[in-house]
Amino acid sequence: MRTDHPLPRTLLPRDWPVAIRTGCEAALGGWAITVVPTLAVFVATSSHDAAAALSMGSAARTATALWSLSLGGSYGQAGSPDGVLGLPLLGLSLVVVLLARSAVRRSRLAGPASAVCTVASSALVTALLLVLATPAGSRTWPTAILLPALVALLAVADLQRRGTGSAALADWWARRPAWVDPALHLARATALLAVVLAAAVLVMAAAVGGAPRMSRLHDALSGGGVIAFIGQLLLQAAWLPDALIWALSWLAGSGFRVGEGSLFSPDAVIAGPVPALPVLGLLPTSPLGGENSSVGLYVPLLLTLATLLVAWRNRHELAGLEPGQSALAGIGATVLLTAGTWFACLAASGPIGPGRLAVVGPARATTVLLVAVETGVGLIVGSVLVHPRARALTERIERVGRRAGDDGPGTPTDDSTETS
Predict the structure, then answer these.
(1) Is the pLDDT of residue 196 over 90?
(2) Cα–Cα distances in angstroms (integers) from residue 210 to residues 99, 164, 213, 250, 281, in the given order
(3) Cα–Cα dist 260/252, whole Å
(4) How far apart are CA 217 and CA 208, in angstroms?
(5) What is the mean pLDDT of residues 158-163?
């Protein structure tokens, strides 16, 4: 007689093959998009200089080191003549994030157990790639931590977005205070406007004289080949987000450094020898307005004016809050922007060579402090002043002031008339 037995329970979720494939795709996507152009450049340039041609294995290890630059790693050794290259390729970091996000969203993971499988497979594949293809002496181990952490964050966010994640986390978010959403909107709008201002600074630097310097350096390094030209262009494009963050620190007034003892800020330029990287052709050669000019001192006001504009554009949303909550929205946005500035400055810092070139990036502490003050003044004061009650109070004070002026010492009163 046939007896139906229930299927044995398993720890794996029902969609575990999809979850494992998603983790592998998230890890391999960024690595492959780095390896393919690197191999193409090595193959194209080897015909020009066969003695200096590297093997395909060495090229793959170099590409792996470049991939790790986008995820906290570094290339080279501190004791070598060329030093360490550790300035993150933030453009490649954005590509890695977008590829991993696309993989997670397309997979539509069933639940937290599926997310665990995805994170585990991404960690395993990342570790395997680093073990097999890391150049000797390079510090690539942070990639083995940051990439799985990124996949975990993306998976949790996708599960919560689709309502299949943690119920406790969803309930906590549903009970958020009324000022949280306006604070997020203020912070996002201010960040976008700051990026636009930083991009305008880069365009201005290129127009003043940076573009010809970049072109000369690019032509000198590309070797004349089309593939080498494209590869060099992609490498410089991967550093453009770093340059945007440097421009933001320039806007804040603190500036940035390219080598120990150097400083590039609106009111001071202390330069020194720098590597022949085309993106460094955008570095300013003098303070804004020239030597002994005070124009650069007023540049940080642009950030404060931008935050006042953001508060004004969001006045209708802020009007729906109590005055205290409106102020909290401005404070919350300032805290978010300050934390984001600290993270951005950390991400856009790293060595680009030996000796003094180990110190490269924004002046982190000063930039964070100045951004907190410059954006805080605009957001907090602006969030309070655009509130209807604040405007009503201001109008009432103005009326009282005008009445007091009309009843001043020069205006005769009833008592003075009777006395005369």
Answers:
(1) yes
(2) 32, 50, 5, 16, 5
(3) 20
(4) 17
(5) 92
Beta carbons of 66 and 239 less than 8 angstroms apart: no
More confident residue, 125 or 5: 125
pTM score: 0.85
Backbone angles phi, psi at 351, to 5 degrees: -70, 150
pLDDT, tens digit (0-9, with 9 covering 90-100), for 48-71: 554 445 577 788 898 999 999 999
User: pLDDT value at position 77?
Assistant: 85
Do 243 and 202 form a contact (C-beta atoms < 8 A)? yes
Structure tokens at 178: 């009324």
Banded model confidence at residue 116, pLDDT cuts 50, 70, 90: very high
β-bridge partners, 361: 257
Residue 398: burial class (beta carbons within 10 Å; 0-12, 13-18, 19+): exposed
Give me the pLDDT at residue 51, please.
44
Quote the CA–CA distance of 67 and 251 in Å, as a whole number.
Answer: 30
As given in the structure block, the two tokens for residue 21 are: 């494939």
What are the residue ranges spanned by the domains of the chain?
16-173, 180-389
Is the four-CA dihedral 15, 21, 26, 29 of positive or negative sign? negative
Better-scored residue on pLDDT, 228 or 3:
228
pLDDT mean over 325-329: 93
The reported pLDDT for the residue numbered 52 is 47
CB neighbourhood size of 40 (10 A): 15
CA angle 124, 129, 133 (to 5 degrees): 155
